[in-house]
Structure formats: C-alpha cells, structure tokens
Amino acid sequence: MKFRSAFLFTVTLAASTWQQASALVLIEIDFSNLNAVSFTTTDGFASVSDSSVGFDQGITLLGLVSSASPEFFARIFGSDIAPSLNHTENWGETYTELATAGIDGLNFFSFFFTFDPEFTAPNQIFSTDSIAFVGSAIVDLSPLSFNSGTGDIVLGNGFGGEFGQVIGQWQAIPEPGHFGLLFGLGSLAWVIRRRTRG
User: Helix %, strand %, coil % for the chain, to 5?
Assistant: First the structure.
C-alpha cells in the first residue's frame, strides 16, 4: 500500500511539473526528416497579449537554426499555421513564407504584394486568454541544420535589429529530457518498492 501511495504521488508530481513546463510550448517541431520537417501547433496559450505586429513580419523561432548558408527562403505549401484569434468570422491569414532571421532564427510570415502605398498588412492577434496558434505544416528544410531542445518564439523578424515580445516557446520532439524524466521516475519507483518490501 505504501508503494502504491508513493508511486501515485510521484506520478502526480511529475504530471504537474510536466504540465507547467510545457504550458508555454506553442509549436512542436520534428526534424528527424529534414526533407519533411513537421511543425505542429499545441493548445498552449500565448504568454502575452499583443496585436501590434503585422503578418508581414510574422513570428520567429529563435535558436532553432544552427546553420544557414546562404540565407534560406522557402514558400510554405499546404500550411495553415496562424494565430487562432485571426480565424474569426470566416476570415483568417496564414503564414505562407519561411526564412532564416539573423543567424539562428526561423521566421514564419506572410507576403503581401500591392501597388497601394497606403496598404498595411493585417496584424497578428494574440491573447493570454486564448490558444496562441492553430494549424500545422510540413516543409523541406534539408539545407539547414537545427538545434534540439527548446527556444523562444518572438514577434517580428528582427531584420530591423529588434524583435517584439516573447509569446511562448518552440520545442523539438522527442525532447531528450523527457526520456530522462521517465527514467528518473522509474528508478524512484523501483527504490520505493524495494524499501517497502525490505
């Protein structure tokens, strides 16, 4: 009985810690196949409310790209990644382009072509009360190499020298640390079981 109680407590604690750690993860990335890198949005909420940055500047996943030479640019075909709040009243804008930003960022944005000098791109809308993103994408990023782990998702492209606010994090999956956590939990359960039997 003691073993069961200790084990349940450990699992509950781990689940709580996992939920807190992943609360700000907004996009998960699987780059095990660089010819088809998968970007999947989560149900995570934005960490800040912001509607000041246009779709033409998009978002940047800082620290994701470890090398990009020359500067990389690609169209995103079949992607429907967008801020969730922009899908209201049957109107929504998605990210259609992808480029390296600075030396280690990957910028998702939308390109607008117009001859109207008064035109401004619509702004992305994020709120701490709503899921940040919806959608997914699979993109050929074979010319690039990537860092594992996690990093910040910021507003803007940084080409003007500054980024906007941090709205959450990206995470490479499977994250090596998760296996370490599971191994640690298994070891702790084994130790508790041995002590209760002895």
Answer: 25, 30, 45
Containing structural domain, residue 125: 23-197
At residue 62, φ and ψ (nearest 5 deg) are -70, 140
pLDDT digits 0-9 by tens, 72-101: 888 888 778 999 998 765 456 889 999 987
Angle between helix 2-21 and 176-197 (nearest 10): 160
Q: Report yes or no on 27 lying in a domain.
A: yes
Residue with tokens 């470890």: 66
8 A C-beta contact, residue 109 and residue 54: no
pTM: 0.75
Average pLDDT, the chain: 79
Please give the radius of gyration of the chain, using alpha carbons only, rounded to the nearest integer.
Answer: 20
In a domain, 70, yes or no: yes
7 located within any domain:
no
* Total structural domains within the chain: 1
1 lies in some domain: no
